[in-house]
Write a structure and sequence with these properties.
heterodimer; A: 427 residues; alpha/beta; Fumarate Reductase Iron-sulfur Protein, Chain B, domain 2; five-stranded mixed sheet; four-stranded parallel sheet; 23 helices; 9 strands; 48% helix; B: 460 residues; alpha+beta; Uridine Diphospho-n-acetylenolpyruvylglucosamine Reductase, domain 3; Alpha-Beta Plaits; seven-stranded antiparallel sheet
């Protein structure tokens, strides 16, 4: 049985907060809002009072607890490593339990729990696009539009694809003998919005000879539901996914979405003993590619004469788990690009699961800061490893009227691979 | 709870978006880094000196205490609203108003975060040296009110050495200006210096005029392991006797080193019982020579090993050892009392030995690290508050530590201030006559005892 932790179970970690205020330097929401209720220290104090029964779950508490990206920036810099993201997520579950899921949380839970409905929405979204989508400047490169029940004016998002990625590809792609077997956990972003990233994933691993399994009935990882406090949805999705995984023999479950990586690799393992092996089985695509020696192979390719300036955005769910070197190693060895480091590459983009739906204004402020760092780097392209970040970063860049396009690093990677992929079982 | 008419008047001053009585907001402004908590009755976020003046006038008329607050990161309770009333935070006043490159002066609002200010001035080749450990999140207003220090103070001095002038709202609600943008100025009393370190008891700082220096071209960091604390302490005196003033001279004693080794797996020889992190700054070509000279001077003093950073990354790795101390200590014991006594720098070894004796007497782990260059020792008494009697024992030990520091010609606090935490110990350090002189100033400027009452001196 999948079971997420109760707020009370975090008591010890909550008491570890010594109120030093270090989180004030690192919380993106606090940076935009500058009120103590918005920062980790304030939220931890609230949770402490909630547990002690000194504070009721009403009024401002609800608003402040909704004002957290769950990005983990505070924990990374906290001298006592207080996991505010987990604590706030647990508090939201308690809010949902005591006060009912908020209207948006309900929507998230309903859609994520039902892949068929999601498929339908994706398809109808594609068909309805002229009604819902906002046109972007032609030079943005991406036609960023998005149908959403909570569409707000000025938000630019990619279209949902008419044919989800998993419906386009076979369930199993055989690789070379002696090479690893990989279960591709696509996540919703790749399946419904960025199928080209899925294609690139396949191409990169086929290049290295891996066997790839793409279970059609895999479900959402549940991270947006974690953010919304929908405990039962998260637990249900986790059980569903585990049942899917158990049908196959594989070496690794691999993601190309930082959020899925965080959901499967960090949140699931804490939900019960049967989920514990996932903490080591789940790998990010770039970690696997580096282990399989791709950096060396890229380094051997001749450098292109005309190269594109590219910078990297660290998705929170990779950064907080120490994955920062691997994508950069790939970027530095790609023949067609010049890698430039932007300032504050590790600051959250401002999406935060369902955060930007509730708090688009603050989310935009955070995105604007990031857009400033991107512009200052002079990069033409921003590469990252998370569909959510891609969406949010492009929105921020567009609002700032910056020239940069945001792409998944896999797309840059496969552009550099020699033709005849799949046949080249090098090494 | 304040009367509705008072809240209405306050709302009229700051606007409804900048006043709150929500229970969760009151909670969020009830604490600071001392981990004590006192609920205020209202929190206001003013944006201008005029608003603050109006609030102070109202508070005097209605006799409501006002507690000014910067980032709430202080270690002595200066920002704690011990008597309810109004918490007045300067978080919204966070603009750098001017960086004057011709006169090497900057003017800022009090809510500017120290590191943000440093980044801004360094971008134009200027330098603001004070570097309290909290610089990434503490505010300049708070730094001035507490007269913050930091590792670089051994060469560059403390916050008050960089403050040329202030705009201040008085406890009774007037707006005054002290000093100004000149390097000299002797007209009238030096109120700027009086207000630096006044802990929010004599006025609310609304504007700060800051002196800047040219940014040194480069710095060089070295970490030296000694076989005894005496060796490390002698090294400090010896370096300075040879007319070299390093930027920083940070030390850790053997127990601190043990904690760091245990918590981080840091590899150092067992013979090492004290550490100095020495940094020099200045012209690039001059630094190698200076670092080598330092290594030569200290070699006879029981040096076990010297590591000199040759790249910024190596320098960062050395500082990381120092920065890992706090978290490492926590792993050894869950709670700590963090004191910051200061003794003449030649007295550091004898002070450490006396602290060791106190540690033994009470059976409490005490670890020491800090700024050896200016004799400022962070004395950390490590306890587990859940064990009955430990906190009381720690309090007795602290009092003895203070007494020993004073006996050596030192002070109870080099950086953190008195606030609430050290107020009971004031009579140990300040004579009744001196205290009466200070209290007379407070009484004259704040006749109703409205502004941050009960701090520095306990109310009777």
């Amino acid at each position: 049985m999948a079971k997420l932790k109760e707020l009370e179970e975090y008591r010890e970690q909550i008491d570890q907060c010594v109120k030093c205020g270090a989180c004030r330097a690192h919380c993106p929401v606090f940076g935009a809002e500058r009120r103590e209720g918005r920062v980790a220290r304030g939220k931890v104090a609230m949770c402490q009072s909630l547990i002690e029964g000194k504070l009721d779950l009403e009024g401002k508490v609800l608003e402040d607890l909704s004002q957290c990206l769950l990005c983990g920036s505070c924990e990374a810099q906290c001298p006592n490593k207080v996991p505010t993201d987990e604590i706030v997520a647990a508090a939201r579950r308690r809010i949902a339990e005591e006060r009912g899921l908020s209207s948006f949380g309900k929507g998230v839970a309903a859609v994520l729990g039902r892949p068929k409905l999601m498929n339908f929405l994706a398809k109808s979204g594609g068909a309805l696009s002229p009604l819902f989508f906002e046109k972007l400047p032609e030079n943005s490169g991406l036609r960023l539009r998005f149908p959403a029940p909570y569409l707000e004016a000025g938000r630019t998002l990619p279209p949902l694809t008419a044919k989800p990625f998993r419906e386009r590809v076979p369930e199993r792609i055989e690789g070379a003998p002696g090479k690893p077997t990989v279960l591709f956990f696509t996540g919703c972003g790749i399946n419904y919005m960025y199928p080209a990233v899925g294609e690139a994933f396949l191409k990169a691993l086929q290049f290295l000879g891996a066997t790839i399994i793409i279970p059609k009935d895999q479900a959402c990882c549940g991270l947006p539901a974690v953010s919304a406090g929908a405990a039962a949805t998260v637990e249900g999705l986790a059980e569903q996914n585990l049942a899917v995984f158990s049908r196959y023999r594989y070496d690794y479950i691999v993601t190309a979405c930082a959020s899925c990586y965080g959901g499967l690799g960090k949140i699931y393992p804490e939900m019960g003993a049967e989920f514990a092996p996932l903490s080591t089985q789940v790998k990010d695509i770039f970690v696997l590619l580096i282990e399989l020696g791709l950096a060396e192979k890229l380094a051997a390719l001749p450098k292109a004469e005309k190269r594109t300036r590219v910078t990297w955005h660290d998705p929170c769910h990779l950064r907080t788990r120490g994955i920062t070197k691997e994508p950069r190693l790939i970027l530095k060895n790609l023949p067609q690009i010049d890698f430039v480091e932007m300032q504050n590459a590790g600051i959250c983009c401002g999406l935060g699961g369902t955060y930007s739906v509730y708090h688009y204004d603050t989310s935009k402020k955070i995105g604007a800061k990031k857009a400033g760092y991107i512009a200052a780097s002079g990069a033409e392209l921003v590469a990252t490893d998370c569909p959510g970040c891609i969406m949010q970063l492009q929105d921020g860049v567009n609002h700032a009227q910056g020239p940069a396009r945001v792409v998944h690093l896999l797309e840059l990677l496969v552009a550099a691979l020699p033709e005849g992929e799949g046949k080249l079982t090098t090494g | 709870m304040l009367a509705p008419r008072i809240l209405k008047e306050l709302t009229g001053i700051v606007g409804s978006a900048n006043l709150t009585t929500e229970p969760s907001d009151l909670l969020c402004y009830s604490y600071d880094a001392t981990q004590q908590s006192f609920l205020p009755e209202v929190v206001v976020h003013p944006a201008a000196a005029k608003q603050i003046a109006a609030i102070m006038q109202l508070a005097n008329r209605e006799l409501i205490p006002v507690f000014p607050r910067g980032a709430g990161s202080g270690f002595s309770g200066g920002a704690l609203p011990t008597k309810g009333g109004i918490v007045l935070t300067t978080e919204r006043m966070d603009k750098i108003l001017e960086i004057d490159q011709e006169n090497l002066i900057a003017t800022v609002e009090p809510g500017v975060v120290t590191e943000q200010f440093q980044i801004a001035v360094e971008a134009v080749g200027l330098f603001y040296p004070p570097d309290p450990a909290s610089l990434k999140f503490s505010s300049l207003g708070g730094n001035v009110a507490e007269c913050a220090g930091g590792p670089r103070c051994v060469k560059y001095g403390v916050t008050k050495d960089y403050i040329l002038g202030l705009e201040v709202v008085t406890p009774t609600g007037d707006i005054i200006v002290t000093g100004g943008p000149t390097m000299k100025g002797v007209v009238g009393y030096d109120l700027t210096k009086l207000l630096c370190g006044s802990e929010g008891t004599l006025g609310i700082i609304t504007k700060i005029v800051i002196k800047l220096l040219p940014l040194p071209e480069a710095k060089k960091t070295m970490l030296v392991l000694f076989d005894s604390i005496d060796g490390a302490a002698q090294a400090v005196s010896s370096i300075i006797k040879h007319k070299i003033i390093p930027t920083t001279l940070e030390f850790m004693d053997g127990r601190t080193l043990d904690c760091v080794k245990q918590a981080t797996g840091l590899q150092v020889p067992d013979a090492a019982r004290a550490v100095l992190i020495i940094e020099v700054d200045g012209d690039r070509e001059f630094l190698d020579k200076q670092a080598n000279r330092i290594a030569e001077i200290i070699r006879p003093l029981g040096v076990v090993e010297t590591r000199i950073a040759t790249t910024p990354a190596e320098s960062e790795a050395l500082w990381q050892i120092r920065r890992s101390v706090s978290a490492s200590l926590r792993k050894v014991n869950p709670d700590k009392f963090n004191e910051d006594i200061c003794v003449p720098r030649s007295k550091v070894p004898v002070m450490i030995r006396r602290i060791d004796a106190i540690s033994e007497k009470y059976g409490l782990a005490i670890v020491n690290f800090g700024h050896a260059g200016d004799g400022n020792i962070h004395v950390n008494i490590m306890i587990d508050k859940k064990i009955p009697g430990e906190a009381e024992k720690a309090e007795h030990a602290i009092e003895e530590v203070f007494k020993e520091a004073l006996a050596l010609g030192g002070t109870m606090s080099g950086e953190h201030g008195v606030g609430l935490a050290k107020a009971p110990y004031i009579p140990l350090e300040i004579t009744p006559q001196t205290a009466a002189y200070m209290k007379a100033v407070k009484k004259a400027l704040d006749p109703n005892n409205i502004l941050n009452p009960g701090k520095i001196f306990l109310d009777n």
